[in-house]
Design brief:
heterodimer, A: alpha/beta, Rossmann fold, 5-stranded parallel sheet, 6 helices, 5 strands, B: about 475 residues, alpha+beta, Beta-Lactamase, 4 domains, 5-stranded antiparallel sheet, elongated
């Protein structure tokens, strides 16, 4: 109820909004279940276009977990777009076969980390927490 | 039969002497020339008028005077000298090689009063022979200096000639092969079938190689075989059929072709591995993630819970296999840094020791080498592979000795185990991917080590003596990366 009136200020900082972008439903489901069990809010997107739609409307996201290869994206352009429209969100990339060039390119464009598939669900959740933790100033 | 008067007979004999192509000269025992025919004039350049009454020594070069004196003594003693080859000199001063027949001349009482000499100029003939010898020597040196093997056989397959090129190629000396059947140089089944081929060709004229040439396999003295291009020509020498085989070694070409094929295969494998990596790892990640979430919801200690753990373990094994395949098929470009190889080996050995399966394996490292420019991560993978191979070869029990040294501008690392050695039948295929002696192995270990070493411009060699104990030697250059 409060959330509808003061959407930003009343947000519980311990509850993260995470966007999961992967065309593999099992990955989305596993990750969503793991993060939801920890109390976080998860939105799923199956391709780049729906990811951008999700980022464009509604509440801002704290983190995006983004697969490198999607039906409508097979390069780092989607990462660039996401960094532009949602600069506040930490982006963690996943890749089944990432070359060193992909990894270093993604880091240069502001990705927090590039994680090779497969991974431990718990490790990924930890990484999301780490990426969104306020940086010590 | 016709009888002549003595005058007539003398005239006829004189005509015969005059018309002879050979010089016919009569002289007394002191050497004074008594008669001189036209051929003598042609041969020596003196007319009869000039020379009759002079001594035969005018025709004899100084260095042959003694020989002449000796011959005259023999003739004076009644001996007849035939086909005696010596040197004479013409009026113009040219030396001529001559063949002499010298017979005693007797008077009516039978006393020897002089000698008749029939001389034939053999200068030309001797020069022909010398030329022949020369051209034969030239041909022989061409045949002998040829890089290719040249072998001549008779119609029954018996080797008649075997040049130095053939000696080099086959490892036989010509003396070991000449007189034996050429099938000696062929592996089975050609060895057994060659006589039949030859007989059929002689019978039917149906040629498979003769006059055509083709690639065949030859066998060296030590039993090893090698690919050759064989061209066979046929000839007839003094009515006998002979065959000349020219053998060109194709080993180098075949080796290069094999290398190119292997490289092309590796490139294709790399492309395939990249696709597999993505298409396999992605669903593996999905299955692993989902089953992990489901597993967490099962009651602790339940049978289902342990099945899920097993499923995750299998998925991890699959994933490791894909990773190994990828490492072999597409080894990453090394990121070289100055590293101390002994330190790297020590930490690798520690890594091995942490695995309970290798508790009874003792690894000793000795020697030193200057720092090398290399990718520590990639070399670590290579050394872990070698140590695990060694440990498994020794059934998890024994000594592995690593010796580091500097050799020919490279850092040499020799890893020796005390295992039973490598079975002979796979010794040639050690670096072939997917060849393994293990019940559960991908056969990628050594092949990957080789790829990683080669990515560092290094070399790898495996020695496995029949007595057991395998040594893998790696040479890594100090300064090429």
């Amino acid at each position: 109820m409060f959330a509808e009136i003061f959407p930003v200020t009343t947000r519980n900082p311990a509850v993260l909004r995470v966007l999961i972008v992967d065309d593999e439903p099992l990955i989305r489901w596993s990750l969503a279940e793991t993060l939801a069990e920890m109390g976080h809010v998860v939105v799923e997107a199956g391709d780049g276009a729906s990811a951008i739609r999700a980022l464009d409307d509604g509440e801002p996201f704290d983190a995006v977990v983004l697969d490198y290869r999607l039906p409508d994206s097979n390069d780092l352009n989607l990462l660039t777009t996401i960094r532009q429209i949602a600069p506040q969100a930490a982006v963690i990339m996943m890749t089944a076969f990432g070359t060193a060039e992909v990894t270093s390119g993604a880091i240069k464009l502001g990705a927090y980390r590039v994680v090779p598939k497969p991974f431990e669900m718990h490790d990924m959740a930890e990484l999301v927490l780490q990426a969104t933790a306020p940086s010590p100033s | 039969m016709t009888f002549f008067s003595s005058d007539e007979a003398s005239r006829i004999l004189a005509a015969i002497v005059e018309s002879s192509d050979d010089a016919i000269i009569a002289k007394d025992l002191r050497g004074t020339i008594l008669s001189w025919n036209q051929a003598a004039e042609r041969m020596y350049g003196y007319s009869a008028g000039e020379i009759i009454g002079r001594n035969i020594t005018v025709l004899v070069p100084d260095d042959y005077r003694e020989e002449l004196a000796g011959m005259m003594r023999r003739v004076a003693a009644g001996e007849r000298i035939q086909h005696f080859e010596t040197m004479r000199v013409t009026k113009a001063g040219d030396r001529r090689e001559v063949s002499l027949m010298i017979s005693p001349l007797r008077n009516g009482a039978g006393d020897i009063i002089g000698a008749s000499t029939i001389a034939r100029d053999i200068t030309q003939r001797n020069s022909d022979v010398a030329q022949l010898r020369n051209s034969e020597a030239r041909l022989r040196s061409i045949v002998e200096s040829a890089v290719d093997g040249i072998i001549v056989i008779d119609a029954t397959g018996i080797v008649e000639a075997f040049n130095q090129g053939a000696e080099r190629l086959f490892g036989y000396g010509a003396y070991e092969v000449i007189g034996r059947n050429v099938s000696l140089l062929m592996p089975s089944p050609y060895h057994e079938e060659h006589d039949g081929y030859l007989a059929r060709y002689l019978r039917t004229g149906e040629a498979r190689i003769i006059g055509i040439g083709r690639e065949v396999t030859a066998q060296r003295k030590d039993g090893t075989t090698f690919p050759v291009q064989l061209s066979v020509g046929e000839m007839s020498l003094a009515g006998e059929r002979k065959f000349t085989g020219i053998i060109h070694d194709l080993s180098a070409r075949v080796r290069v072709e094999a290398q190119l094929r292997e490289q092309a295969a590796l490139v294709r494998l790399g492309e395939m591995a990249a696709v597999i990596a993505h298409e396999v790892k992605n669903p593996l990640a999905a299955v692993r993630g989902a089953i992990q979430v489901i597993g967490k919801r099962l009651p602790a200690g339940s049978r289902e819970g342990s099945v899920v753990a097993d499923i995750i373990a299998r998925i991890d094994t699959l994933n490791a296999l894909v990773k190994d395949l990828l490492l072999f098929a597409r080894p990453p470009q090394p990121k070289p840094m100055a590293i101390d190889i002994v330190t790297l080996l020590s930490s690798t050995a520690t890594l091995l020791a942490e695995d309970a399966a290798h508790r009874d394996v003792r690894v000793t490292i000795s020697g030193t080498a200057p720092r090398i420019m290399a990718d520590a991560e990639l070399l670590k993978i290579a050394f872990v592979n070698l140590l695990i191979n060694g440990a498994q070869a020794m059934q998890g029990q024994g000594d592995i000795s690593i010796v580091v040294a500097t050799k020919d501008g490279a850092c040499r690392i020799a890893v020796a185990d005390s295992g039973p050695g490598i079975p002979a039948e796979i010794r040639d295929k050690l670096f072939t991917p997917f060849v393994t002696t293990k019940a559960r192995g991908t056969g990628l270990g050594l092949s990957t080590v080789k790829r990683l070493v080669e990515a560092h411009q290094g070399r790898i060699r495996v020695d496995s003596p029949p007595g057991g104990g395998t040594t893998v030697t790696i040479d890594l250059p100090f300064a090429t990366l």
